[in-house]
Design goal:
This protein is mostly helical. It has 18 helices and no strands.
Length: 384
């Protein structure tokens, strides 16, 4: 019995946990059903999940395939090793990560959050990491996810000094990434220790200062690397489907409201609980971020589940003239730093085989996103 008490994975068949879970689970869905109608709720849930699968998951899979191919040839021809040597002296003191992780930042900035997973699957990349550093890649990559799309979209808005605001937003997201990664590193050090290296297969017997390459001519190595990297991207794309469909469906239904004709059972409808909570907290959030309009709070809340959807909100609000350049800075930093992390974090941590740290990753990144927004607001105020 003493051993059972020490094993936290073993619990009684029926304990208070069962009743607490049932109360929360039934309470949530009974409330949603009472607002939307039971049939509409189930239909919306199914159609939203299908929409996420077709328009988000397969898009992310395509991104992962491209990123996987590029990552593989970078690994094969020594780019990762070069970057690690050049940037390690910067990345180590700032993030406590190897220099090679900077490639993950670039991959995600050019595409989306899961792009870092294809790098993390490559032994020539993994060999630079200690176990406690690997889970933090999720927080690092997500901090810059969809960066290029976000920044260029914000710069194109019909708002005075929009370009300046977007550039300040990049600085804010950097601050947010440091906060998120550093908090995560503190958690992982306690869990994994600081000595063990990440396990690798192909580079296990390779001496320090050398790297493992494929057999054959330069052309054959290039073709093999890019195709195998793309295959890793497919695997990663499949791995994130459960997390995106399950988690993002819930986030969407808690974030969005009814359609123009009310609840009809269409995809992407919901009960708008998260914006309501955000509105109640707007007096604090507006003070921290300096928003011009209280309704701007909808943008960071939407960015929790989808950066693309939040960009749509910004475009609509800028057309009505309720967005300032300071708002653009804050929106850019938060949309980049959060970039829909609630819909990808769980899947990414699972793909990295570090799902035991998922809760910590989400908590640290939540704090990092707020830090990014506050930093962007303060930097913009200082620059005038």
């Amino acid at each position: 019995m003493d051993e059972l008490k020490l094993d936290k994975t073993i619990k009684k068949d029926v304990s208070k946990e069962v009743f607490i879970f049932l109360a929360v689970f039934l309470g949530l869905f009974i409330y949603m059903g009472s607002q939307m109608g039971g049939t509409n709720m189930i239909k919306t849930m199914m159609l939203t999940s299908y929409d996420l699968l077709m328009n988000v998951c397969f898009y992310l899979m395509a991104v992962a395939v491209l990123a996987g191919g590029i990552s593989a040839i970078f690994s094969e021809f020594g780019v990762i090793a070069l970057v690690n040597k050049l940037v390690s002296k910067i990345m180590k003191p700032i993030y406590d990560l190897p220099g090679a992780s900077s490639l993950g930042m670039l991959n995600c900035f050019m595409s989306d959050n899961p792009a870092i997973l294809t790098l993390a699957a490559d032994d020539n990349f993994r060999k630079y990491f200690k176990k406690y550093q690997m889970p933090a890649l999720t927080n690092l990559g997500t901090s810059f996810g969809m960066g290029l799309i976000t920044v260029t979209s914000m710069m194109a808005l019909p708002v005075d000094n929009a370009i300046k605001g977007a550039l300040v937003g990049i600085l804010g997201s950097v601050v947010g990434s440091i906060i998120s990664v550093r908090l995560m590193i503190r958690k992982t050090k306690k869990y994994y220790g600081t000595e063990d290296m990440v396990e690798t297969k192909g580079t296990r017997h390779v001496p320090d200062g050398y790297r493992k390459v494929r057999e054959g001519s330069v052309g054959a190595r290039f073709i093999t690397a890019i195709l195998e990297g793309g295959k890793v991207g497919v695997d990663m794309g499949l791995a994130i489907i459960p997390g995106v469909c399950l988690i993002c469906t819930l986030v969407v239904m808690l974030t969005n409201g009814p359609g123009p004709e009310g609840f009809t059972g269409e995809a992407n409808q919901g009960i708008a609980v998260l914006p309501m909570i955000g509105e109640k907290l707007s007096f604090i959030i507006n003070l921290l971020f300096g928003f011009k309009s209280p309704e701007a709070i909808a943008v960071p809340i939407t960015a929790l589940g989808s950066a693309g959807a939040s960009l749509g909100l910004v475009t609509e609000m800028s057309g009505r003239g309720v967005v300032s350049a300071n708002d653009i800075a804050v929106f850019t930093s938060i949309c980049m730093c959060w970039s829909g992390y609630l819909s990808t974090h769980i899947a990414m941590m699972d793909a990295l085989e570090t799902k035991e740290m998922t809760g910590n990753a989400i908590l640290c990144h939540t704090i990092g996103g707020f830090g990014a927004g506050v930093a962007a607001h303060l930097i913009y105020m200082v620059l005038g």
